[in-house]
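Researcher: Let's run the pair from yesterday's discussion. Sequence first, then tokens, for each.
Model: Starting with the first of the pair.
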Amino acid sequence: MSTSTVKTIAQGFFTLLAAIIAAYGVIKAAQIEADTRSFRITQTAFAQTALPILAQAPTAQYPDQGAPAISATTGVIEPDSPPASQASATLPFTPEPSWTPTATRIPPSATPDLRLFWDDFDQGLKPEWELLQGYCTMSNGMLVCPDGDSRIEVGDYSWSNYRLAFDTGSYWIPGGAAALVGINANGSYLKLNFPVCHNAYWIYHGPDGSEQQVSVANGGVCEDGPFHVEIEAKDGIYSMKINSNAVGVFQENRIISGRIGFLVNGPWFDNVVITPLEP
């Protein structure tokens, strides 16, 4: 066999092989296109039927991670699905709003403290007191002034129309103790000096130090103490009660307003309360 014949046979073989390969490629491409078209048809049908059903599935079936996320392009369940609280799908129900407790406002007291001043001496002498002479201290929650002729005051010179109430010991030594009302800046005041079982004397103490008896409250109380004393001063009219018993009323227009105080030489005092009176 000649060389030319061999070449001719080889060329024919390779030509046939190329034709076979080309034909196989055409057939394979057609098969791939057919498979792709079939998958797309299946995907579209899945999206139209299965996806709406899965979107309405309650999240309670997936307590750990919520409803599975379905790819809108592949129709495949994604393994790393976000929690149901982060899903963008619209749930078939509206969650109830959370309840936030509201603090209840406590109304202010209906009975505010209208006292001008008070002191029960349980915590010592309040700083408002002014000791003008002598020495006073606390004993068993009471005010005592063991040094003779002690004088203590509290309040404002403008105080008027008020009630002074206090408790005191079982007896008042004659001349040993007195309640002072209407103390003025010029030194004038009214002094109530009464021993038990005797008349109660109201004394006007003038700016120059002179004293004048202006009233006698008849009917001093003869009984064992302690005693609760109330003195009312209103528009120059003064009245007094001892253990709720009225023991005299008088008028003194020279004293209309002022501080209150005590002259003490022995007896104790406690529960001092000063309240305003109706004008």
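Model: Moving on to the second of the pair.
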Amino acid sequence: MTTGVAGYPRNYLYNFPIWIVFLAGGLVYTGNLIEKMWNSPRFKNIGVASLTLVLTVGMLLYNFNHYYPSLKIADGNLFKKNIQRYSKPNDLILVADSRNFLYSRTIYKRNLLNIIQDNKLTGIHLIKPTGFLLDDYEVFTGKRMDPIFKNVFRQNLLNFQDISGEKSMVALTNSKSISVFPEDFESRFNWQTIRGQGKATSNENHWITGKNSLMLKADFGEDFIIRSALENKIIVSNPSLVILTWARTNPEKRTLAYTPVLEVEGTVNGQVLSARQVFTGIVNDGMNIQIQDRSNTTDPFYWFVNVSLGKLPPGEYSFRILLNTKAGKTVLYDSLRLFIVEMVRQ
């Protein structure tokens, strides 16, 4: 309890009943032991009971305050209202501390669905606790957590808004984004097979945006990898952030689904880029967003919706996506969206 290590709120919610049982057992055992050792008259028993009560209340208060930091917020509704006050419905909300997922998840989910349904991103905001450095903000790259904003922002020049409970929010962008992919991009364009054998077909039975989704069915033997055609060239004039969204579902449970890979070709500072992968990582890792599809079937699918974040220097780019499916498995993808938005000027 003194290590300072913390995890996702659900971990503590699941473990709390077990912790209570062990705490109660320990208190009973300790009380019986003290009673036997002292063989005390009545007033000493009252003292033991009082001490037990004080210790119990103290431990409960300590654990709630230490492991449930959200309870320190005087008004959770005020916290959420302040997030909405300083952001727009189509803004992407990043949360630096997983212990704050509990109160921010609803707004993050609603905004994310607005972004993919409207194919429109209006900005990016970061929620952080007091004392947190932007250089330390990390995204999940598939193998590890990496600091995506290291040496990017000069924190003392940014405008932070207090949103209660020793937490603040800051805008990381200052302009509207460019939407690169059209609606139903994943099912409207021809995909090129890079490795393996399988089928990439439009699926009209299950989707969450548009009118259909993309179904990848890999043959047995090796993974099935496909690549989209290059999109039109886009000129990026200033340092920018790139946002990739996608939704995926698996008809077969426990099927591993790979994160889409963003690839570019173009020029940066006179250097020609050919099939260069853009370094991205999943934001708000652990805040799992799952929604039911909009199909009319009696057996609807549930989709996981994710967001990857990366950086782009000024240059001229053409983008494409690579998708990978495990051998012998089937995966459906939908809501592939790609946005480019300039970082806030400092």
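Researcher: Give me one sentence on the second I can quote.
Model: The chain has a mean pLDDT of 86.
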